[in-house]
């Protein structure tokens, strides 16, 4: 189990924090948002349901929007865009 922050394409990033519980997904999402430019998109994959509330709140505080929310077999995949 390792945190993975990957650049997929220009302006598109993936943060995989599956296997971690709060507050780690929120902390790593905040760090990843600090690393990307305004307008870039960050897809966050996590499997702790309570992390969704924390990440949603973080977006409000950090100037990011949740563009998409998907859940499949206990794994959540949210796409965020930094404002």
UniProtKB/TrEMBL annotation:
InterPro entries: TusA-like, TusA-like_sf. It comes from the Bacteria. SUPFAM superfamilies: SirA-like. Residues 15-39 form the UPF0033 domain. Pfam families: TusA. Belongs to the sulfur carrier protein TusA family. PANTHER family: SULFUR CARRIER PROTEIN MJ0990-RELATED (PTHR33279:SF18), SULFUR CARRIER PROTEIN YEDF-RELATED (PTHR33279). This is Preprotein translocase subunit TatB. It comes from Rubrivivax gelatinosus (Rhodocyclus gelatinosus). The lineage of its organism: Bacteria, Pseudomonadati, Pseudomonadota, Betaproteobacteria, Burkholderiales.
């Amino acid at each position: 189990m390792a945190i993975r922050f990957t650049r997929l394409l220009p302006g598109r990033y993936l943060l995989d924090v599956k296997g971690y519980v709060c507050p780690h997904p929120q902390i790593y999402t905040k760090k990843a948002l600090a690393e990307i430019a305004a307008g870039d998109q960050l897809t966050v994959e996590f499997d702790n349901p309570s992390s969704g509330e924390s990440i949603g709140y973080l977006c409000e505080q950090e100037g990011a929007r949740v563009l998409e929310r998907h859940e499949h077999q206990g794994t959540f995949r949210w796409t965020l865009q930094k404002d």
